[in-house]
């Protein structure tokens, strides 16, 4: 059989199963057994939640790698390259490694139909076993209980936050979402939650599996000042740990606090300077990702954020309120059809002076007229564009020195913006991390 390229493999995976999402573990478990998969690493940490999974995983990986541990991170979705989903010791998996893994899974699959995500998850587990990791950090794709990542029994289970998203699959209440996310908990294994008010189904699951439970505001928490932030938490033995005068981070410090509590339970060296450096070095593309842009002699700021549900929009609005630009804040906005448009827009209306709305490059996108009509009904200034690139360019033209352009609403939106930045960097438009 002719060897497939990575692009050919991904195209094949997209048409392999009749539906893109098909919740359940039976198919994946069957193929994992044929592959002979056991555990991707001696220590496994699983992370779920409505928002904050990606940055929590990134913080954890930084903390663990700072101790010389070999860490694998599996996350989704990707922004520009599929390789982003599988990282081993800080490096994205190569095309060749991914193709080899897909070949192994395909051979074991036989006539069992797997979704795109299930194939990718088993391929990541296969690569992690080959890599002789110390720790695997696994981000749940959707929900928890029936997600392919949940094949693995986690030594630590983290739930970042609980809000309503993916209602078609997880239900339209926080209680139904909590039930699904609590499915990653295992008997006797520590569970951590960053949500202020975890719904009853999560607490019931904690009691059912008799899991040591570490809850924000009770067992660990943080406080954020104008220049620094601090943290306290517990070791597995119940001893109190504290960190003070930590430098403020670009990423959500709430997720850093959750990662710190997970790290505190692993009985690893506790060096405050090393920990602070690891947190400071953590970057996640597309999450509160602020960049400088020199556009036709104007110094602008571009803020990229993949936030796409009301919980994420509320958090983003809170961060924007304490980080005002010298000038105005303009927005480029696109949203998928299954997302809560009023819930995403409402927290940000007071923060944005002008909106440029755009469809996203997927059949799942809301139309520009729908977005435009809703914003006009909210008395917002808005205009429509054909795509993300033209919307972003129009806002750059509109902006004056000191303005900030917020681009948010979807991974698709941020990915298009990143490609736009790459093209214009090649054409001589300077861009780079604001730092």
Automatic annotation (TrEMBL):
<dbReference type="InterPro" id="IPR013221">
    <property type="entry name" value="Mur_ligase_cen"/>
</dbReference>
<keyword id="KW-0460">Magnesium</keyword>
<protein>
    <recommendedName>
        <fullName>Dihydrofolate synthase/folylpolyglutamate synthase</fullName>
        <ecNumber>6.3.2.12</ecNumber>
        <ecNumber>6.3.2.17</ecNumber>
    </recommendedName>
</protein>
<feature type="domain" description="Mur ligase central">
    <location>
        <begin position="47"/>
        <end position="185"/>
    </location>
</feature>
<dbReference type="GO" id="GO:0046654">
    <property type="term" value="P:tetrahydrofolate biosynthetic process"/>
</dbReference>
<keyword id="KW-0547">Nucleotide-binding</keyword>
<keyword id="KW-0436">Ligase</keyword>
<dbReference type="GO" id="GO:0005524">
    <property type="term" value="F:ATP binding"/>
</dbReference>
<dbReference type="InterPro" id="IPR036565">
    <property type="entry name" value="Mur-like_cat_sf"/>
</dbReference>
<dbReference type="GO" id="GO:0046872">
    <property type="term" value="F:metal ion binding"/>
</dbReference>
<keyword id="KW-0479">Metal-binding</keyword>
<keyword id="KW-0289">Folate biosynthesis</keyword>
<dbReference type="Pfam" id="PF02875">
    <property type="entry name" value="Mur_ligase_C"/>
</dbReference>
<dbReference type="GO" id="GO:0005737">
    <property type="term" value="C:cytoplasm"/>
</dbReference>
<dbReference type="InterPro" id="IPR036615">
    <property type="entry name" value="Mur_ligase_C_dom_sf"/>
</dbReference>
<comment type="subunit">
    <text>Monomer.</text>
</comment>
<dbReference type="Pfam" id="PF08245">
    <property type="entry name" value="Mur_ligase_M"/>
</dbReference>
<dbReference type="GO" id="GO:0008841">
    <property type="term" value="F:dihydrofolate synthase activity"/>
</dbReference>
<dbReference type="GO" id="GO:0004326">
    <property type="term" value="F:tetrahydrofolylpolyglutamate synthase activity"/>
</dbReference>
<dbReference type="InterPro" id="IPR018109">
    <property type="entry name" value="Folylpolyglutamate_synth_CS"/>
</dbReference>
<comment type="pathway">
    <text>Cofactor biosynthesis; tetrahydrofolylpolyglutamate biosynthesis.</text>
</comment>
<dbReference type="InterPro" id="IPR001645">
    <property type="entry name" value="Folylpolyglutamate_synth"/>
</dbReference>
<dbReference type="GO" id="GO:0046656">
    <property type="term" value="P:folic acid biosynthetic process"/>
</dbReference>
<comment type="function">
    <text>Functions in two distinct reactions of the de novo folate biosynthetic pathway. Catalyzes the addition of a glutamate residue to dihydropteroate (7,8-dihydropteroate or H2Pte) to form dihydrofolate (7,8-dihydrofolate monoglutamate or H2Pte-Glu). Also catalyzes successive additions of L-glutamate to tetrahydrofolate or 10-formyltetrahydrofolate or 5,10-methylenetetrahydrofolate, leading to folylpolyglutamate derivatives.</text>
</comment>
<comment type="pathway">
    <text>Cofactor biosynthesis; tetrahydrofolate biosynthesis; 7,8-dihydrofolate from 2-amino-4-hydroxy-6-hydroxymethyl-7,8-dihydropteridine diphosphate and 4-aminobenzoate: step 2/2.</text>
</comment>
<dbReference type="InterPro" id="IPR004101">
    <property type="entry name" value="Mur_ligase_C"/>
</dbReference>
<comment type="similarity">
    <text>Belongs to the folylpolyglutamate synthase family.</text>
</comment>
<feature type="domain" description="Mur ligase C-terminal">
    <location>
        <begin position="291"/>
        <end position="411"/>
    </location>
</feature>
<keyword id="KW-0067">ATP-binding</keyword>
């Amino acid at each position: 059989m002719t060897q497939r390229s990575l692009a050919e493999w991904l195209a094949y995976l997209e048409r392999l199963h009749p539906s893109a999402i098909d919740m359940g573990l039976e198919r994946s478990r069957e193929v994992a057994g044929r592959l002979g998969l056991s555990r991707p690493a001696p220590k496994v940490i699983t992370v779920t939640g409505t928002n904050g999974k990606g940055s929590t995983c990134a913080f954890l990986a930084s903390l663990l790698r700072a101790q010389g541990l070999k860490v694998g991170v599996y996350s989704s979705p990707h922004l520009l390259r599929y390789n982003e989903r599988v990282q081993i010791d800080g490096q994205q998996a190569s095309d060749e490694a991914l193709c080899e893994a897909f070949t192994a899974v395909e051979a074991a699959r036989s006539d069992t139909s797997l979704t795109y995500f299930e194939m990718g998850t088993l391929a990541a587990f296969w690569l992690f076993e080959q890599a002789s990791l110390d720790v695997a950090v696994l981000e749940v794709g959707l929900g928890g209980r029936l997600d392919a990542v949940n094949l693995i029994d986690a030594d630590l289970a983290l739930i970042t936050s609980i809000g309503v998203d993916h209602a078609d699959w997880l239900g339209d209440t926080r209680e139904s979402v909590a039930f699904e996310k609590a499915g990653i908990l295992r008997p006797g294994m520590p569970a951590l939650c960053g949500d202020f008010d975890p719904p009853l189904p999560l607490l019931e699951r904690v009691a059912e599996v008799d899991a040591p439970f570490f809850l924000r505001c009770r067992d660990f928490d943080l406080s954020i000042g104008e220049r620094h932030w601090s943290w306290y938490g517990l070791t597995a033995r119940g001893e109190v740990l504290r960190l003070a005068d930590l430098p403020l981070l670009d990423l959500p410090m709430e997720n850093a606090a959750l990662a710190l509590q997970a790290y505190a339970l692993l009985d690893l060296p506790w060096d405050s300077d090393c920990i602070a450096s690891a947190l400071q070095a953590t970057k996640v593309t597309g999450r509160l990702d602020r960049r400088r842009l020199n556009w036709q002699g104007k110094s602008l700021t571009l803020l990229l954020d993949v936030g796409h549900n009301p919980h994420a929009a509320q958090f983003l609005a809170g961060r924007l309120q304490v980080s005002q630009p010298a000038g105005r804040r303009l927005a480029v906005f696109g949203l998928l059809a299954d997302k809560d448009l009023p819930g995403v827009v409402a927290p940000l209306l007071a923060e944005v002076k002008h909106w440029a709305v755009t469809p996203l490059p997927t059949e799942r996108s809301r139309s520009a007229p729908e977005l435009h009509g809703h914003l006009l009904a909210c008395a917002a200034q808005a205009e429509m564009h054909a795509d993300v690139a033209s919307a972003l360019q129009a806002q750059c033209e509109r902006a004056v020195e000191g303005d900030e352009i917020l681009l948010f609403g979807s991974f698709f939106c941020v990915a298009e913006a990143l490609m736009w930045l790459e093209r214009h960097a090649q054409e001589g438009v300077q861009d780079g991390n604001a730092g």
